Amino acid sequence: MLELILRIGFSLLVVFALMWGLAKVARKPMAGRAAGTLAVIGRQQLTRGASVAVVRVADRTLIVGVTDTQVTLLGETEESMLVAPNAELIQVREPIALPAAPVSPVAAAAPVSAVAPPAAPTPRGSLDGSVLSPRMWSQTIQFLRERTVRR
Fold first, then answer.
1. In terms of Cα–Cα distance, which of 55, 60, 29 is closest to 42?
2. How far is Cα 121 from Cα 113, in angstroms, rounded to an integer?
């Protein structure tokens, strides 16, 4: 019984050693390519099958469009013009008052009620725009309720 356990343990050890060795050999060609003159600086997904990428090739920085079937050169830029990926790009703007619509003579005779001040912009949280955002889920539920109402 002890001999059987030792054989199985030794066989497993050999198999794991072979797997580790093959993994080391398989990684080496990939590491050699990563040290080349090509690097993806940034990538933005546009749709399921399309994205825009900024790629550094030697001393040039290229903007390319990538789809499932092709890569298209969109332009060239200088690397110093790129914004850091973690920079905050959200600008908060003050609400503006819209001019009043033309008033009909009947409405002009009616008393004017106080105009409500514009709503303050809602604070943006770290989850805004993601699947985890509670605001996104409430908007989705409201949309589905409106779509399922019989008319």
1. 55
2. 24
**Token pair of 144 as six digits:** 């589905």
Give DSSP secondary structure letters for 76-136.
Answer: EE-GGGSPPTTS---------PPPPPPPPHHHHHSPPPPPPPPPPPPPP-TTTTSTT-HHH
- DSSP letter at 150 equals -
Mean pLDDT of the chain: 75
Q: What is the pTM of this model?
A: 0.35
DSSP class of residue 68?
Answer: S
Half-sphere exposure for 110 (CA within 13 Å, toward CB):
8
Q: What is the per-residue pLDDT across 89-118, written as a single tens digit (0 to 9) for each? A: 556 667 777 666 665 555 555 555 555 555
Token duo for residue 44:
């933005």
pLDDT of residue 30: 54
Q: Which two tokens stand for residue 70?
A: 């092709």
**63-102: b or e for each residue (b if 16 or more CB lie within 10 Å)?**
bbebeeeeeeeeeeeeeeeeeeeeeeeeeeeeeeeeeeee
Contact at 8 Å (CB) between 40 and 53?
A: yes
Instruction: Quickly state the pLDDT bin for 5 (edges 50, 70, 90).
Output: very high
